[in-house]
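Fold this sequence, please.
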Amino acid sequence: MNTPNAFHFLLKQVREEHGMTQVDAAKNLKIARQTYLDLEYGKTLPRLDTLITLSALFNKSVAYFTGERPSLDSFDTMELFEELQQRYLKKVPNIAEAVPH
């Protein structure tokens, strides 16, 4: 579990982004400092209730902490681009056509 998407790497990153110390995070999670350290150093994984509290505390989804990322592999990129382009063109009027000559 030593990948950049590993739970402990994500936990440390999001804690630092929120300007919290490890002690601050432990207090907010209502767990012992050592328990928090074990989580952040990758020695243990969180209990479900701790994971849910982490998600609320840092405004991240549970999926974020599990390392799940949405994949676009199954999408046809050009088809998706064309659809987005059509949606954009419908919303934005053509100024050249709107100005009387």
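Helices lie at 7-17, 22-29, 33-40, 48-58, 62-65, 77-91, 95-98. Residues 7-65 form a domain with the 434 Repressor (Amino-terminal Domain) fold (CATH 1.10.260.40).
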